[in-house]
Amino acid sequence: MTTLAELCEEHTSLSSMAIDHLLRLTASWSLLADLSFSDMVLVAPDEEISDDESFVVLGQVRPNNRSTLIVDDLIGTSQPSSQWPLVREAFMSGERGAGEVALPGVDQAVPVWCIPVRFDGRIIAVLVRLQGPLRGPASLYEQAYLSIFERLCSMVSDTTFPYREDTVAGPGMPRVGDGIILINDVGEVEFATPNATNALHRLGVYTSTEGKTFAAAGLRLRVVERCLEYGIPAMEEVDRSSDVAILFHCVPLFEVGVVTGVVVLLRDVSDLRQLNRLVLNKEAAVREVHHRVKNNLQTISSLLRLQARRSDEHETVVALQEAERRVRSIAVVHEVLSREPGEEVVFDEIVRSIVLLVEDTVLALHPVEIVVNGELGTLPTDLATPLALALTELLTNAVEHAFIDFGGPDNEHVGIVTLDLSIDGDDAVAEIRDNGRGLDDDFKLDVATSLGLSIVRDLVRSQLNGKIEMTTVGDDEGGGTLIRVVVPTELAT
Asked: How far apart are CA 10 and CA 48, in angstroms?
């Protein structure tokens, strides 16, 4: 769907600041639609039409408390001014117009308001309100809603609505149906809807609040005082106990630049807060599981290390040390997950731990430096664990074996192992390059004799559904070995 900004750039010559003003308006105008029980349409002159007799529909919103009058999506369409004479009149006069309009599919004429949207001293659009039929005579609360709507319409025309500071409607915000309290300019309650009264009862306020301030009724709300004092929207959540939480969203009302009242939208968020607590408890449990797995792996690592110290056979010692290192590389992933549990993990933190692990556990007979370039960002945990183990094996293999019998009789050659990480489309790419002696002439990865390379090959190809290549780099390119590992970032299920 074409966005409002794109429509403005294509069909109008509005400045970026004017477009931002309209974006803020459409971010908050569901409040206007609900208060007026009406469909709302935002239009501007279509400058693409040479005869200047058409309007382009920039936005459309339907009420949540009434059935819509406009079944079709009008956004992006051009409407002839002959069908919307009141819109043209509102553009020309700069005054709010009221009348009727014929809509396709509606048997009788529909009451319509045309509210000019003014910005920086000129009219940039017209807000069209299409009023659906009320269910009988307007009730006391419907009259109050319409009164608030009319005050907000005046604010639209004098540029005090929408607010620069914040939006007042949308996902997560209290809606009109959740409860409304109207407060006058001295902080006294003029009326409250039944839903709002029920919310106050849950907070322990059972006396009538009409004609009183919240403080006089026994409820201290600093948010109302800030809204009256500074004239900006404000929000506050009030907890009566662990089971009750009410969200208060205060919307200031202006007249000629002066705050004349506040509309308080209330929403009972008790169930939502309980759900959040459950989620936090679950995250804490998952974090604890990863922490215990990490501790268990570290215990296994310590046992392997102790067993290696008690062995007199060199081959047994080497095998136990390699097993211990592999267990620690898996523990690294769980250590990161114990800090930030979830289905994904920041792999760059794991890479830093892997490099430290290799530097701490490998005893090279020559100076070796490990350099890491690039990053892989966030990866699924199912991918992170085997990939971390594979990279640990490859880095260890490069540090231990790439520089044997290399660098002259004094072995003064400084070994450099570079790990380059990048994302290529849907693939994670890791390249390990060393400046050592290169591969043996008869080396073949498919018939690798070392356990470490066999583990890496099977991990990359079987578990990660990826590819691994190992090649010797020519002397003209610096020599050494290049290992390229490519794995998809989304594992097949």
From this structure: 8
